[in-house]
C-alpha cells in the first residue's frame, strides 16, 4: 500500500548547443548570436516545499510564511506549479532580473484550487517606487482544474517587480505555471537544444521519448512555425525493429501528458526528412522523437536517434551535437493502462520458477491507481522465453465484486517460489469494505481488519488454488493491520520459506499505530507460518536475501525518508541486529525497493538492489551491484535504467544465465527489462 506516494522529478542527459548554420546558410554575425537569448520562462520543476524566497529563470519570488508553496503533482507543462495559498489575502512578489523594455509581455497559465467563494485575483506592476494594478481577473476567467486560463498581459515599460494577490477562503488559492516574460519584436527561433533522458523504448508503448529537442523563440510579435526536421537513427542496432517514427510536441518532461503528434513516417534508414506545420510559441518549445516498436523487436538491441537539423521560418538551424552520448535499452510493457479494461496496474513482484518461467504479479486496479480499499484483483503474467514475450494475463486472487464492501479488493501481492517442491505462492491483502492502510483496525475478522490471503500454483503459474486466510494464524489482534511484502520472498538453503511482511502496531502506547517491517516463515512447505518481530518503528515494505553466512538481511522502506533501514537476523526474525549500512548506504525517497542475491557460476556472489536513487521524488530508477555481501555499493556499479518520474516500485530476478530480469512501475504500467550482466562484466 503506497500511502506516501510522491511524484518524481525527471533527470535528462542534456547537451546545450550554440546556434549553428547549415552549409547552405550564411553564418550569422557573432553579435547576433550573442544577443539572441531565449525568452525567460519558469515551470517550477526544480523547486519544492514552501516558498519564502525562490530564485528562478524569470526572477526572484518572495512571500511571507504560509503564503505560497510549490504544488506537487499538479502542473500545466510539467508536474509542479506555484500555489498562492488561500489564507485570506495571499501575496507573492516577483522581482524581475532587470526593468523590462517597452512592449514586453507577461503570460502564464492558471487555475483555481477550489470553486468556493470568495475568489479574487489581481496583478500589480512596480515602476520606480509606485505600484499599479495591471490586471483584475474576471469572475469566470480562472477556472478549477486543467490550467485552462492562459493570461497574456503587456507590461508597463520599466516594470521592476510584479505582485500577485489572491483572496480566497482558507482552503482555496490559485495555481500558476509556465510563467513567461517575452521581449518585444518579431518571433525568431534562436536556439536548438537536444536532450536524451534515460528512457527505455518499450514494445507495446505508443510513446517512447528516446530523444527530445527544444526550440527557443525570441520575441512575441507575428508568428514562427516549425516546418520540417531531419532525423537519423544511427546507433540503433536494428532499425527494421521500428514500425513507425513519430515526433510529438510536448513539455520538458518526457511523458505523454499534453503531447500532440506533429509528424510521422515509416522510414527508418538514412537521413529521414519530415515535414510539418507546427505553430511555435514565444519562449521554449519542446518536442520528442518517439519510435513505435514492432512486437518482434529484439530486447537485446538498442535505440538511438539524432536531430540533424530543423527548419523554422524558411531557415535551417542545426545543433552542434546531434545527440547526447548514449542510447536507449529496449523493453516490453507487460501491462499498460487500459489493458483488459483496467485503468492502472501497480505493485510488481517477479520470480523465476523451477521450470525457468518468469511470473510477474501485480495489482489490477480497475477504476483508478489508488490503493485499497478499491476494486483491485491480483494479476499474473507468464513468460517462458526469459521475458521476451508474455502470455495473456490470468487472475490469481479475486475476493469478489460487491460494491457494498468496497468491491472486496485484494492487492499488494508478494510471490515466492518453493525451490524444493516448485510450488509458487502469492500472498495478498483483502479489504472486505474499508480496511486499507487507514481503515483497518484491531481484531481478526474481515469486518474489523484487513485479511492476509494466500494462494498457490503447482503447474508453473497456469492455475491458482482457492485462497486461504492466514489472518488468525499470523496477526496479533491488537495490531491495526498485518500484510505481506510486497515483491518477492525467498527459500533458504535448508528449505525454509520466508516472505517479507509488515504490521501497523496497536493504538496508543509508545508506537501509536505506527508500522514495522517483519517477516513470516514456514518449515513445513507452507502448511503453517510463523511471524517474526518488528525490525524498527516506521518501516514498512521490505525485501529479503539470505547472506553467505546463513543470516537473513532485510532491506526496508523507512518513513523517515532519505535512506533505507537495513538489519539482519539469525533466528528467523525473533531478534534483529541493525546492519553497519543501516540508514547510510542506500538512499530513497520513501518507496518500495528490490533486493536480490545471485550466486552466479561465472561471476561469483552478487547482490543487486533497485529503487529510485533519489531523496526528492521517485525518479532515477537505478540498479546497484554489491560484490561484498551488501557492505558497499560502489558508484561504478550503478546502472541508471529509467530517469523519468514514476510510481517507483520494482522487483528483480534471474531472466536467464546472462540477464537480470527487472519489472518496474511506470505511471500505471508494468514495464520489463532484460539487463545483461555484460553491463557490469565486460
Task: Tell me what you see in this structure.
- There is one protein chain.
- The chain has 682 residues and is mainly β.
- Among the domains are: 40-182, Sandwich (Jelly Rolls), CATH 2.60.120; 188-328, Immunoglobulin-like (Sandwich), CATH 2.60.40.1290.
- 1% of the residues lie in helices and 48% in strands.
- The chain has 2 helices and 50 strands.
- Strands 2, 3, 4, 5, 6, 7, 8, 9, 10 and 11 form a 10-stranded antiparallel sheet that branches. The protein has a 6-stranded antiparallel sheet with strand order 1-12-14-19-16-17, with no helix packed on it.
- β41 and β42 form a beta hairpin.
- The radius of gyration is 27 Å and the shape is globular.
- Mean pLDDT is 92; it is low at 4-38.
Concise overview:
This protein has two helices and 50 strands.
